[in-house]
Design a protein that fits this description.
The complex is a heterodimer of chains A (208) and B (142). By secondary structure, chain A is of the alpha+beta class. Chain A is 41% helix and 12% strand. A 4-stranded antiparallel beta sheet of chain A has the order 1-2-4-3. In chain A, helix 2 crosses helix 4. The termini of chain A are far apart. Chain B has a 5-stranded antiparallel beta sheet. The radius of gyration of chain B is 14 Å and the shape is globular. Chain B starts with a strand and ends with a helix. In chain B, 37% of the residues are buried. Classes of the chains: A alpha+beta (208), B alpha+beta (142). Chains A and B meet through helix 2 of A and helix 2 and helix 3 of B.
């Protein structure tokens, strides 16, 4: 398995240089140092499988497992939001729904996976639902789900990241991951975003 | 010239406070009398910041509020953390904006710590030292 893919991980801040006699303080490290860093997909897949096993031992059901993965992703997302916006160097916050969703769709996905997400859709049935789809999610690529747990979607981790970004930007919502296999892409997953009512009310006010 | 800098979390809770001042004796005496007011001034300015942050998508908001002789400027981060600065006179944009962006950078470095969650108070002495250094660099040369 020599496949490597672009997957960047936030781990640089607490690293110290052991080969030099002086420890570099966390506040002196350069935030852009790992901006273009890539790690091997196999290393990440190993870490993710260990996270899954860790979570599995401590939960009682599929919903709990998805919620635990969502929590893991939430912790990543809070830091990702600030870091990505800072690295973009345009110092702009998103105040509209469409703005934050396209930010997630392009910039966040590009930072995590090297390519933008495959589609961003608005649900026709409900005003407050949006869907981001990925044809081949890298994080659950090597996770095989047994038949008993067929309802489990390991992209709950990704859903947690998205939920944290939305929460941080003040667009509280419920985010879940669903698999929607289509022709040619059996692993296709959709992140379903259901925005809270107050977000829609604020959008209405801002529109006028 | 004295300044009061505060970082306010998403639940209106203070995460970090610092006062910078020039070394004149009079400056220090004045600060003691009104120091307790600083928290109230910042707190009341938070309402205005929250109103203004939805009308603009820049992070830096200048002249949010004015109280007697204090002016308040704010910097809202992508995660809705507010950096508030009380300063005495109408200063130019440049130094304050640079001060805020450097503090933002240090804040992100603290945030990346896996043991630090959003909305926890910032107690790191390295952070404190860095913020004071930045303040001396951009606000000290008055």
């Amino acid at each position: 398995m020599s496949q490597t893919s672009r997957l960047s991980v936030i781990s640089a801040a607490t690293e110290t240089r052991y080969h030099s006699s002086k420890r570099v303080s966390i506040v002196d490290r350069n935030l852009n140092k790992t901006k273009t860093a890539e790690i091997g997909l196999n290393a990440f897949a190993f870490l993710f499988s260990e996270m899954l096993q860790y979570a599995q031992k401590r939960v009682l059901g599929i919903q709990d497992l998805e919620r635990k993965l969502n929590d893991f992703g939430y912790r990543v997302g809070t830091r990702l939001l600030e870091l990505i916006v800072w690295r973009e160097k345009n110092s702009k916050r998103e105040t509209r729904v469409l703005g934050i969703l396209s930010f997630i769709n392009t910039t966040v996905w590009k930072t995590l996976f090297g390519k933008p997400a495959d589609s961003l859709e608005k649900s026709t049935e409900n005003e407050d639902e949006y869907m981001i789809s990925d044809n081949d999610p890298l994080i659950s690529k090597f996770i095989s789900v047994p038949k008993e747990l067929s309802q489990l979607n390991c992209c709950a981790f990704l859903a947690g990241i998205v939920e944290a970004i939305l929460d941080g930007a003040q667009f509280p919502s419920r985010v879940t991951a669903h698999s929607v296999p289509i022709e040619g892409f059996p692993l296709r997953t959709t992140i379903l975003i259901k925005l809270d009512r107050e977000v829609l009310q604020r959008e209405e006010q801002l529109k006028s | 010239m004295s300044f009061y800098f505060a970082i306010v979390g998403t639940k209106d809770n203070p995460l970090y406070e610092a006062e910078f001042g020039s070394k004149g004796v009079e400056g220090i005496v004045k600060k003691d009398e009104h120091r307790h007011l600083n928290q109230f001034i910042v707190h009341s300015a938070l309402d205005l910041v929250e109103e203004l942050q939805w009308q603009t998508n820049t992070m830096y908001i200048k002249h949010v509020d004015k109280f007697n002789e204090w002016h308040i400027s704010a910097h809202v981060t992508a995660g809705n953390i507010k950096f508030m600065l009380l300063h005495e006179s109408q200063r130019d944009d440049g130094p304050i904006k640079n001060f805020f962006s450097e503090c933002y950078e240090v804040y992100i470095k603290i945030l990346l710590n896996p043991f630090y969650e959003v909305n926890l108070p910032i107690t790191s002495p390295a952070f404190d030292a860095r913020v004071r250094f930045i303040a001396r660099k951009y606000l000290g040369k008055e």
